[in-house]
Every structure is written in C-alpha cells, then in structure tokens.
Write a structure and sequence with these properties.
Blueprint lengths: L3 E4 L2 E2 L5 H12 L4 E9 L4 E8 L1 H18 L15 E10 L3 H19 L3 E5 L10 H5 L6 H4 L16 H6 L2 E5 L4 E7 L4 H11 L4 E2 L20 E2 L6 E8 L4 E8 L7 H14 L4 E7 L4 H14 L8 H12 L9 H4 L1 H5 L2
Parallel strand pairs: 5-7, 6-7
Antiparallel strand pairs: 1-4, 1-5, 2-4, 2-5, 3-4, 8-12, 8-13, 9-10, 11-12
Length: about 350
C-alpha cells in the first residue's frame, strides 16, 4: 500500500489572503503533494490548511510553508479569538495509509529538528510525537500562548524539543510551533442564538471530556472548589475524546462552541450536536446550526445522516448523496455559508 500522510497546519492569519496564498503556493510547489482545503476565519485570525502526499514530500512542503509563514506573519501584532503561540501554530502529521505511527513520529522529529536548526523557531512536540506525558496534550504545550513564551522557555520542564532555548527578538516575531503526530481530528463549531461567550464557554465545559471547574452552589459564579493542593477540582464532561471552548464570533454576530473531536468512533459530529442541543436548552438558549472547519471523513457525514434519518423514521437505503445532504441539513452545516461536499469531504477531494 502506498504511504500517504495528511498535514493540517494552522497559520495565525485569517484575513490577508495574499499572505495565505504565498504560504499555500509553497505547499503546491512540492511534487507528490496535493492541497485539499484552505479554510480561513477572520475572527479567529487563523487559517487551517489541509494537504496530503507521500511522507517525505509532505514534510518538505510543511517546512517550506513554515518558512514562508515565519517571514510574513508577525506574532507581536497578532490578535485573534483562538488560542495560538506561533505564526505556524500547530503542525500535525496524520497517517492516511501504509504507514505506522512510530514511523511517522520519526518523520516528525526530523522535521522538527530541521525547523529548529534552519529557521531558528522553537518546536514543541505533542501527542504521539511528545517527549513526555505532560507534552502529549496540545493545550499544555500551547499554555500561556505566544505572550507566555518568555517565561515558558526559562522553565527547565518546558525547554523546546528543537530549536532555540532562549527567548529573543526572532522568537517574539515567529512564536513557537506545536508539531505533532495524531489521529484524524474534526474541528467542529456549534452555533448558538446568543452573543454570550461566557454562556457558550460554560456549555462547552459541560460537554467536553475535561469538564468544568466545580464551584460552590454549582453555579458559574460560585467560589471555585480546590483540592488539598489548591488546584481546581473538575466535574467531568459528557463526551470523552472531545475538547471544547466557547467564544463570540463578531463576523457572524453569534456565540459558538468550538470543539475538537479527536476520536470520531467515540464521539462524532452528531453526538456533539445532540449534546449541545440538550445543554443549550437547559441553559435557556438554542442551537441554530453548526460549522465544519477544514475537512471531514465521509464516514462521519454518513453516520450523521443515517442517525437523523433513523431518528425521524425515514429510510436510510437511499443514495449516498441523499444521506450526505440529510447530514448537512440536520446539522445545519450550511447555516453560515454554503457547504459543498466536494470541497469538504476528504474522499471526494482525493478522487478529483
């Protein structure tokens, strides 16, 4: 089986399409690489790029994109709703076919070493590529964001895996990179009929695996309950393998719950959508639709379409296109913008 991997870098620029074009031009300049999707968000000030190819080619394309991003994006001036700590904020490599995780980790480490040595950018490795358990979680690696790097880099426990270990003006401009090897992840936002980022954050904390901080009186304003070490105690959330935050998107004039679904075999889009509907109603608001950032496997869309068709006692022995369309409508994936399956579903883009 031919070795194929996917790379989904997130760049800290969501408005200037000239900058994004220069970065993606570097990707498509590499043979045996195919650019699948470019998804930009102004409020998050972030662009998610998806490309696939052979491992060596993808790593070369990733290096060229990181280099261009480091030249064009200045983190000293960056503002956005999404957590971030670098011009190329995250750089995950994902196995598609014919390659084991351990082999892909070797590719990631060689790429990280090259980025650190040639581009002088600090690199933190996460998930399967992490050097220790504390670094497996992306949120831990990115904690403090770019503003916290001066302190983070002086902590012996948070010395970068590759690249400079001292904070200096060059690092202030480029920030750091989280380079990982992970399984497929779906970036999925659920829309609410409110502008309250606080309420969205509270609902997200009820759903995500990490859960929410326990408070006296079980209210969002109660005093935080801590353990004997003074650390907040968490109430586990509803869905395992789900990460989530809440924010207000000025571009749309609504609050959203922004989720990362890290194992769609355990919790896929329709699981998250249904859980959000229940918790939104319990908190006096309503879900109006959802948004897919980047791309999605066909199975996740088909599973959602069949779930809602069965829920409505409608037949599922219909064409694939009809099931896909059912998922789009039931999840409200076209509420904020048209949803084109040929551009958003990985398998459809791969066969073009």
């Amino acid at each position: 089986m031919k070795q194929l991997i996917e790379c989904v870098p997130n760049f800290s620029e969501g408005s200037n399409m000239h900058i994004i074009k220069q970065i993606t031009d570097e990707i498509v300049s590499v043979k045996n690489v195919r650019l699948l999707n470019v998804d930009s968000g102004k409020a998050a000030n972030r662009t998610v790029v998806t490309f696939v190819g052979t491992p060596a080619a993808v790593c070369e394309a990733a290096f060229r994109a990181v280099k261009m991003a480091s030249q064009l994006i200045d983190m000293r001036k960056h503002k956005g709703e999404h957590p971030r700590f670098g011009a190329t904020d995250v750089l995950p490599l994902i196995p598609v076919s014919g390659i084991a995780i351990d082999e892909l980790v070797e590719y990631a480490h060689r790429l990280g070493e090259r980025i650190g040595a040639e581009l002088n950018i600090p690199v933190y490795c996460y998930e399967f590529a992490a050097s220790n358990q504390k670094r497996q979680n992306l949120a831990n690696c990115r904690s403090g964001e770019c503003e916290g790097l001066p302190r983070k880099m002086t902590d012996p426990e948070w010395k970068p895996d590759f690249g400079p270990v001292d904070y200096h003006e060059s690092v202030a401009k480029t920030g750091a990179i989280a380079l990982g090897v992970r399984n497929f992840l779906i970036a999925y936002n659920v829309n609410l009929n409110t502008t309250s980022a606080k309420l969205a954050g509270f609902i997200a904390s009820e759903i995500r695996e990490k859960g929410r901080v326990k408070r006296v009186g079980n209210t969002s304003s109660g005093e935080i309950i801590t353990d004997k070490y003074g650390k907040p105690v968490y109430e586990p959330g509803m869905l395992k393998t789900v990460k989530g935050i809440g924010w207000y998107i000025e571009e749309y004039g609504i609050a959203q719950l922004s989720f990362n679904l890290t194992n769609i075999g355990i919790a896929s889009m329709h699981h998250v959508y249904e859980a959000t509907c229940r918790r939104a109603e319990a908190n006096g608001v309503r879900v109006t639709g959802s948004e897919l950032v980047g791309m999605v496997p066909l199975k996740a869309i088909l599973d959602a379409g069949k779930y809602y068709l069965e829920k409505q006692h409608l037949p599922t022995d219909i064409s694939e296109d009809e099931i896909v369309n059912a998922a789009i409508k039931f999840l409200g994936l076209d509420q904020l913008a048209p949803f084109d399956p040929k551009k958003k579903i990985i398998e459809y883009r791969m066969v073009e």
